[in-house]
Amino acid sequence: MMSSAAHTLAELFMQLGLPSDKESIEDFVDRNQSVCKDRSIVEAPIWSESQLEFLRQALSEDSDWSQIVDSLYLMLSQ
């Protein structure tokens, strides 16, 4: 049974083991802006192996995390 609750960006950052307060998320996006401009989020060279595994799984299974992963991708594409 799929969860109908959407995850937040802060929850995604917690899941990835990254600081999840608003300022840390903004700093991460600022530091990594454009990293996904010409590549998928899982091809970006900013992730550890465990982070990559989580992102790949979230997208390949179209899990309840996929929407917020897509949102992060858009932020890192600009």
What does this structure look like?
By secondary structure, the protein is an all-alpha fold. It has a domain at 39-78. Helix content is 54%, strand content 0%. The protein has four helices and no strands. The chain has helices spanning 9-15, 22-32, 49-60, 66-77. The longest helix has 12 residues, at 49-60. The chain is globular and about 30 Å long.
Please outline the major beta sheet: none
Structural class, by secondary structure, is mainly alpha
Strand percentage lies at under 5%
Parts with pLDDT < 50 across at least 5 consecutive residues: none
Global geometry: globular
Number of strands: 0
Whole-angstrom Rg:
12 Å
Q: Percent of residues in helical segments?
A: 40-55%
What is the distance, rounded to the nearest whole angstrom, between the alpha carbons of the first and last residues? 34 Å
Averaged pLDDT, please?
93
The helix tally amounts to: 4
Q: Element order, helices and strands?
A: HHHH
